Amino acid sequence: MSLRVSFELTNDDLKHFQLIMREARKAIARSTPEDIVATAEGLLRDLSSTATPGFIQERIDKLRLMIRMLTDLDWRLPHHEATRVLNALAYFTEPEDLIPDHIPGLGFLDDAIMVELVMRELEHEIEAYQDFCEFRSKHDGTSRDDWINEHREELQARMRHRREESKDINGNNAEFSLFD
After folding, report:
1. Could you give the CA distance from residue 84 to residue 24 in angstroms, rounded to a whole number?
2. Is the dihedral of CA 9, 84, 165, 159 positive or negative?
3. Do 112 and 59 form a contact (C-beta atoms < 8 A)?
4. Which of 39, 70, 109, 113 could cross-link 93 (Cys pair, CB 3.0–4.6 Å)?
5. What is the per-residue pLDDT across 127-172, written as a single tens digit (0 to 9) for each?
6. Which letter does DSSP use for residue 148 in this model?
7. H helix runs in 102-143, sequence order
């Protein structure tokens, strides 16, 4: 038997998560990108050795995708976009959680919520990277480097264009932003 629980986050709730993300970014301000990635990878290793609910496993895969975006040498995510992804990983490298992780079933609920918020915030970067991975896996020519460079630049330009399109006419994100 399983139980489905759903809830809605209000604007005040979202502002609270935004504040938590800012605090996490401050806490890692002196960390190197390599340290942030290594800490996030360590967290994922620790989580894979524990029994976690299915909804957490789904979010763990999304965190792995963000780490691959940063570490994929063919993708070479530009600095501004890489900083956005590193800022997203900041929360997951902090040992202090809203809900302590050791509480069975609920301990990772705050992490799952933050993953969902971050994935929405980085939707254009993630979509472009997934498309790049798909294109790369299908390519079988001898000019692989030229092909990768061309598609990387095209997809990263699309990513930036879509992010700009999703802003309202005042220059503010029309949706909630964790990175403000």
Report:
1. 13
2. negative
3. yes
4. 39
5. 999 999 988 887 655 467 777 777 888 888 898 888 888 875 555 5
6. H
7. 109-121, 123-138
Of the candidates 27, 32, 48, the one whose C-alpha atom is nearest the C-alpha of residue 95 is 27
In this prediction the pTM is 0.74
Written as six digits, the tokens of 63 are 């965190």
Nearest to 106 by CA among 53, 151, 47: 53
Q: Which of 77, 115, 83, 108 is nearest to 179 (CA)?
A: 83
Considering all CA atoms of the chain, what is the largest pairwise distance in Å, rounded to the nearest integer?
54
Tell which phi-psi region holds residue 171, choosing left (phi > 0), alpha (psi between -120 and 50) or beta. Answer: left
pLDDT in tens, 33-77: 899 999 889 888 877 777 777 777 888 888 899 999 999 998 988
